[in-house]
Amino acid sequence: MLFQVYGEGAAWQFLGWILVFACLVLANEIARRTKAGGMLCFVVLPIILTVYFIAIYVSAAAGAEWALNNNTYVHMTSWFHYAKLYAATAGCIGFMMLKYKWGIGKTQWFKAFPFVIVAINILIAVCSDFESAIRGAHALAETGTSWWLSSEGVWLYGGWWNVLNGLAGIINILCMTGWWGIYSSKKKDDMLWPDMTWMFILAYDVWNFQYTYLNLPTHSWYCGVALLLAPTFAAAFWNKGGWIQNRANTLALWCMFAQVFPLFQDQGKFAVIPRLYADGFMDAATHPTAVDPTAQGVISVLSIVVNVVVFAAIIKRSMKLKKNPYKDEIWKGTKDYEEAMSRAE
Q1: Which of the two residues, 43 and 7, has the higher pLDDT score?
Q2: What is the DSSP string of 172-239?
Q3: How far, in Å, CA of 103 to CA of 286, rounded?
Q4: What is the torsion angle, in degrees rounded to the nearest 10, for the CA atoms of residue 26, residue 32, residue 34 and residue 37?
Q5: 157: which strand partners?
Q6: Exposure check for the chain: N or C terminus, fewer CB within 10 A?
Q7: What are phi and psi of 274, to 5 degrees?
Q8: For residue 158, which of 83, 222, 217 has the smallest C-alpha distance?
């Protein structure tokens, strides 16, 4: 089992997962279906939160007790969380510009924006993976164990699995094809990327789950499972071709929630930790004495294998069709592509 979700607290842990999954699916529908919903979620709300974040840090610098004890300030100080939040939000705004053809969203060159912003988001995670591998190596040399304490008070176990998954993330960027094949749906509720078929989604989901499992282990039950499955679920059943928009929407909204309410995942009945923590708990004040990194190694191998296989399939099809996989759409004629295109203008 990947997570410690057994015993008398399991019912609450599964309830928490169901609530997160359902709320993300619902929030995505609110954000994608109308201009007002999108503007509220990705313009108005981020502005309010930005003012809130600045107030916290300015007040903390001035020694204000309320800020120094604020959960966002105490538990969510990593550069990664803020980078991810604003990169995902930028993606949502750019996708709306393309969907509604606002401003530069009408231009041909801006159709490459989805590739660029997704690649940036992946590279942010890749850098975090490599950082964990380096810190784990330093910890091993200094203390004889690969455990290192993050700035947010979480013990991470860095190692070769981080390097392998980081490489898988780089390959995953190369698995995005048909950069210029971006369309609006007939109902104007979705930005469509038809060439981003189930193969890329699978490769991305495996890689990103492993990223969270390695680097956000105390949050992975939610951001590595519920958050990844919510956009995939929508794309599979009623939103063909709109997966990347679903993913950006749910990611941005989840980052906002997690930044303001971190203790939902960190403490209490909804908190879940992976099997990595063989001691049965994760406490910043207590250096772990036991570890079970089996799942970390296995999933990292799976992550890079899946991404290499998908990349090989892209090269094979590109050579067969004699097309550039990034300039041209190479999955025309496949079921996923045609179902997505049937929704396009």
Answers
A1: 43
A2: HHHT---TT--EEBTTSS-EE-TTS-HHHHHHHHHHHHHHHHHHSTTTHHIIIIIHHHHHHHHHHHT-
A3: 53
A4: 60
A5: 147
A6: N
A7: -80, 175
A8: 217
Which letter does DSSP use for residue 148 in this model? E
CB 152 within 8 A of CB 189: no
Q: How far apart are CA 307 and CA 202, in angstroms?
A: 9
CA distance 283 to 267: 10
Please state, in angstroms and rounded to a whole number, the distance separating the CA atoms of residues 197 and 204. Answer: 11
Burial 234-264 (b: 16+ CB within 10 A, else e): bbeeebbbbbbbbbbbbbbbbbbbbbeebeb
- Residues 3/273, Cβ–Cβ less than 8 Å: yes
Q: Which residue has the tokens 């619902």?
A: 26
Residue 135's H or E segment, with its range, is helix 113-143
Q: Which amino acid is at 325?
A: P
How far is it, in rounded angstroms, from Cα 251 to Cα 24?
9
Name residue, tokens 């190694």: 297
Q: Which among 271, 250, 273, 270 has a CA at the least distance from the CA of 85?
A: 250
For 23-82, how does the pLDDT look when each residue is reduced to its tens digit (9 = 90+)? Answer: 999 999 999 999 999 999 999 999 999 999 999 999 999 999 999 999 999 888 888 889
Distance CA 96, CA 102 (A): 8
Determine the angle formed by the axes of helices 198-215 and 227-237, rounding to 10 degrees: 170
- Which parts of 71-111 fold into alpha helices (H)? 71-75, 79-100
Per-residue pLDDT of 127-177, as tens digits, reads 999 999 999 999 999 999 999 999 889 999 999 999 999 999 999 999 999
